[in-house]
TrEMBL record:
This is Vitamin B12-dependent ribonucleotide reductase. GO terms for biological process: DNA biosynthetic process. Residues 747-850 form the TSCPD domain. It is an enzyme of class 1 (oxidoreductase). Residues 1-20 are annotated as: Disordered. InterPro entries: RdRp_reductase_class-2, RNR_2_N, RNR_lg_C, RNR_NrdJ/NrdZ, TSCPD_dom. Residues 8-19 have a biased composition (Low complexity). Its cofactor is adenosylcob(III)alamin. Residues 160-695 form the Ribonucleotide reductase large subunit C-terminal domain. GO terms for molecular function: cobalamin binding; cobalt ion binding; nucleotide binding; ribonucleoside-diphosphate reductase activity, thioredoxin disulfide as acceptor. Its EC number is 1.17.4.1. Belongs to the ribonucleoside diphosphate reductase class-2 family.
Length: 971
């Protein structure tokens, strides 16, 4: 705990503010060592980055000899190389070192800071350069992706990832919306828009005809987004469409995507490819946007009271229709139950925390709902890696955290001075209000490593205190910057409102009730930061209308080697890790042993629990683990999951300390009911959230590897959703029948072969019969005498396996389940291809695999004949000899170069797994999500990456690919 250090830090902060007012910021050394450049403090190595499509093995990217610190993971290096290095691969202009990338960005920030008078001296500018470089090099934080794409290149210097557009009730404005959205998508970013100004389909045009309504114009925008996506973008176009709850077309808007989901089911049942990215999914509308309803406090009170609510015309604001508020709110929950859309945005809460109401209301958000500000504006983001501030003794580096926020918010502010924007309107608004979005990642990992359950008062108080320190420091630094370069242009007309919101933040910070020593320390620091910020802001104003958001941190989270993204908890206790030189392994998250040590478990128990998790994927019945500690290891997916309300409570704990909002989807089980979703929506309003989106597992058809129709039908039957029309019920029943497996019996005469075997001295016979067109269809096992218990069990087992095969269960599924099963008899066999067996079952299914599965499938399962194993040994010996020769040659060739020889050695040794719990990853996995499916036996309906084919995982309300870093939404 850094009590005295914090006090000193506060004094220095106040001194900084005073010196800033005198002209230019004085920069203090925090992370760096005087006289040593940050690059000289780390060990570097050269790597080859080869990215392949997980599904077919084709190479889609290759760059050899890239330079990274040895501490950077393969994933982080791969993503930076493929996503952020600029220049054509294979040309001298191509970047090849992390040093070049960081220098390109940091030098641009430094030059702009010096040019615009942010620093008191050149020495301060140089120290700022080195501190920023150190933090980026050591993965303390990262800017959002557009910074890495564009800053310091010949491209437009776009630094913002989040955009909000506007559209008025005119055809010119609607067509401008299409164009502006397209330009933003072309640049790889996302945008949001509120369509509530467009008159409804129940109102008249000036010509006397009836208006089309906003939903019809959504169709054109959706088609445009889909076309740009399919025209070569590396990820889906990300967009948000919002409609106010009092718009006369709100009921049509609510049902829009649910109706399309019905269409997807009908087309799927007719044999069309309706998976996300499938050939036929493009025929379905409205799939490129997230939809949200803006609900007002007036509507929510009508819902509570069970009264009617008026829908108002866009031309005159008069009520043209009344609806039952409870029914409309239930319809929103019903649609979300069916297809996850629409989400909710709580309009009055959003605008109650708005610093610029005199300029205009906040009507919309970016696609992931974390950036909420004025129309035609943008926000650049950066996120801190919270695990970098967790001390070995369990404390938190509070003073370093404060100073790091100062550096980052200063850099983000400087970027606006040189940034380019996709449209002039956005540029004007952003330069006038200078919205920033500092945030963080790894809160889930930090809480677990500290021995705190994510869904607990202690966990929430730590998260709230960290968030309050971050935003309080950011605004305090913004006030200091206002003393150097002036407040934002729109501050004068909004000064009273801005001060009011600052006081609201400060008051909320004082209300934090620490339930953990870390929270208590941070809460004290947060209160001081807010008070200092209010004092300095009263004198200088503020440089930025907005300071913080909590973004998904998808790609940059992987770049920083974060275990958890944004505000999310851990996905699962096991993860998928790529190795230098190719290959992968399954490891237990390193936060798990750290958490166990924090909870006081001795090392031998830690090892036993970690081994249990490695084998089972969860902590249930782990040896020596106290049941009261189970909640510490609850995750977003797996055996023990955090409840939906637990996610909502965490969002509510940190929301008062965020300028914008929180990108997070509340996952709900497939069995969740409409009433439960309705309650979550209601609690989001009661708890003061600004936005909320839910996702019920397997609610969307257009996802790869979703559950079979029978499972979906069962889920529908178990919910307590409102009664559907008879025709709809019949349709569900028909699907269940259609997807029922059909048994394919063997003909009377079929080929078969019998193998005699001995396992550990126990003898038996295996008879396997095939279909005439090949493929195993029947198995008979004979052991012991007729009429004995063992003989009966084997007969029953044979029948069960045979029926499963005839109903279409793949043989490789049985092989993966029954190989390595251990029980007596076990030991030596008389089969030259299977010399040792862990049990009779282990032997039987290895033999069946050798006889009936193709080589590639067996290779994935690790099952080979004696000849194949001998050939492998010879090949590996030859490859090892060649590798040694290559390393020797490389060392000799690189001796005169300044790169440390140790780097080459580390590169050669990097294929040796670290001393951590591990085992070979199941061959069916290509990402943590797929690994989790293997461990739990449940499929996750995440999409496949459009770039490399790997199954993605959730990051906020978007998805991120662990293979190549592509995202389905904001960076």
């Amino acid at each position: 705990m850094a009590g005295d250090g914090i006090t000193a830090g506060r004094q220095r902060s106040r001194a900084n503010g005073a010196s800033a007012a005198g002209g230019g910021l004085r920069v203090e050394r925090v992370w760096t060592t005087e006289g040593v450049h940050p690059y000289d403090e780390v060990e570097w190595e050269r790597r080859d980055v080869v990215m392949t499509n997980w599904r077919d093995g084709s190479i889609n990217f290759e760059q050899k000899g890239v330079e990274f610190p040895t501490a950077w993971s393969v994933n982080a290096a791969n993503i930076v190389t493929t996503k952020y290095f600029r220049g054509a691969v294979g040309t001298p202009d191509r970047e090849w070192s992390l040093k070049q990338l960081i220098d390109r960005v940091v030098s641009t920030y430094r030059k702009a800071g010096e040019k615009n008078g942010y620093f008191a001296s050149k020495a301060d500018a140089e120290l700022f350069d080195h501190e920023l470089t150190w933090m980026l090099l050591h993965q303390v934080f990262s800017f959002n992706s557009p910074v890495w794409f564009n800053v310091g290149t010949k491209s437009p210097q776009q630094v913002s990832a989040c955009f909000i557009l506007s559209v008025d009730d005119s055809m010119d404005s609607i067509l401008d919306w299409y164009k502006e959205e397209g330009l933003i998508f072309k640049g790889g970013s996302g945008s949001g828009v509120n369509l509530s100004r467009i008159r409804s389909s129940k109102e008249l045009l000036s010509s006397g005809g009836t208006a089309s309504g906003p939903v019809s114009f959504m169709r054109g925008a959706d088609a445009s987004a889909g076309t740009i996506k399919s025209g070569g973008a590396t990820r889906r176009a990300a967009k948000m469409v919002i409609l106010d709850v009092d718009h006369p077309d709100i009921e049509e808007f609510v049902r829009t995507k649910a109706r399309e989901e019905d269409k997807i089911r009908a087309l799927r049942d007719a044999g069309f490819d309706m998976d996300l990215g499938g050939d036929d999914i493009v025929s379905v509308q409205y799939q490129n946007a997230n939809n949200s309803v803006r609900v007002s406090d007036e509507f929510m009170r009508a819902y509570e009271e069970g009264t009617e609510f008026g829908l108002r015309g866009r031309l005159d604001g008069e009520v043209i229709e009344k609806v039952d508020a409870k029914k409309l709110f239930r319809d929103i929950a019903q649609a979300a139950w069916e297809c996850a859309d629409p989400g909710l945005q709580y309009d009055d809460t959003i605008n109650d925390w708005h610093t610029n109401p005199e300029t205009g209301r906040i009507t919309a958000s970016n696609p992931c709902s974390e950036y909420m500000s004025l129309d035609d504006s943008s926000c650049n983001l950066a996120s801190l890696n919270l695990m970098k501030f967790l001390k070995a003794d369990g404390g938190f580096e509070t003073e370093k955290f404060v100073k790091s926020v100062e550096f980052i918010i200063t850099a983000m502010e400087i970027s606006i001075s040189f940034a380019d924007f996709p449209t002039e309107k956005i540029g004007i608004t952003t330069r006038a209000y200078r919205q920033l979005g500092i945030g963080y990642a790894n809160i889930g990992a930090l809480l677990m490593a500290s021995g705190l359950p994510y869904d607990s008062e202690a966990g929430r108080s730590v998260a709230a205190a960290i968030t309050s320190v971050m935003t309080g420091t950011a605004y305090r630094r913004s006030a200091e910057l206002a003393g150097v370069v002036g407040p934002y242009e729109g501050y004068a007309r909004n000064a009273d409102a801005h001060k009011r919101v600052m006081r609201k933040h400060a008051s909320a910070s004082d209300d934090i009730r620490p339930a953990h020593p870390i929270a208590a320390e941070l809460a004290r620091e947060a209160s001081q930061q807010w008070q200092d910020g209010l004092r300095i802001g009263e004198k200088n104003g503020w440089r930025n209308a907005q300071a913080s958001v909590l973004a998904p941190t998808g790609t940059i989270g992987l770049m920083m080697d974060c275990d958890t993204t944004g505000i999310e908890p851990d996905l699962a206790l096991v993860k998928f890790k790529k190795l230098v030189g190719g290959g992968s392994m399954q490891i237990v998250n390193q936060t798990v042993p750290r958490a166990l040590r924090s909870l006081g478990y001795p090392e031998e128990q830690v090892e036993a629990i970690v081994e249990h998790i490695s084998d089972n994927g969860n902590v249930v019945d782990a040896p020596g683990l106290k049941p009261e500690h189970y909640p510490v290891f609850d995750c977003a997916m797996g055996e023990r999951v955090i409840s939906p309300l637990g996610h909502v409570r965490m969002m509510a704990a940190v929301q008062p300390f965020i300028s914008g909002a929180i990108s997070k989807t509340v996952n709900m089980p497939e069995t969740a009911t409409v009433e439960e979703i309705e309650e979550i929506h209601y609690q989001g309003w009661k708890l003061g959230l600004k936005a909320l989106a839910i996702y019920r597992d397997n609610c969307k058809v257009g996802q790869p590897l979703s559950a079979a129709g029978k499972k979906a039908g069962t889920a529908t039957a178990t919910t307590t959703a409102p009664a559907a029309p008879a025709a709809e019920v019949e349709k569900v029943v028909e699907k269940v029948i259609e997807y029922r497996p059909v048994r394919k019996r063997l003909p009377k005469k079929r080929p078969s072969e019998t193998v005699s075997f001995s396992v550990g001295g126990a003898e038996g016979y295996l008879t396997a019969s095939s279909y005439p067109d090949d493929g195993l269809g029947e198995v008979f096992l004979k052991m012991s005498k007729q009429g004995s218990t063992l003989a009966g069990v084997m007969d029953a087992f044979s029948v069960a396996i045979s029926i499963g095969l005839q109903y279409g269960v793949p043989l490789e599924t049985y092989v993966s389940k029954f190989t390595n099963m251990r029980f007596e008899p076990a030991g030596m066999t008389d089969d030259p291809d299977v010399r040792m067996a862990a049990s009779v079952m282990d032997y039987i299914f290895r033999r069946l695999a050798l006889d009936f599965l193709p080589y590639d499938t067996r290779a994935d399962l690790g099952i080979f004949t004696a000849k194949e194993r001998a050939a492998q040994v010879q090949a590996e010996a030859a490859a090892e000899a060649a590798a040694v020769d290559q390393v020797v040659t490389t060392l000799a060739a690189s001796a005169p170069v300044s790169a440390p020889v140790g780097g080459a050695t580390a590169a050669a040794d990097a294929t040796i797994p670290a001393a951590e719990p591990e085992r070979p990853a199941p061959v069916t996995a290509g990402s943590s999500t797929e690994l989790l499916e293997v461990v739990t036996g449940h499929s996750a309906d995440a999409p496949l990456c459009f770039t490399c084919g790997t199954k993605m995982r959730r990051a906020g309300s978007c998805y991120v690919c662990e293979g190549c870093g592509s995202t389905s939404g904001c960076s």
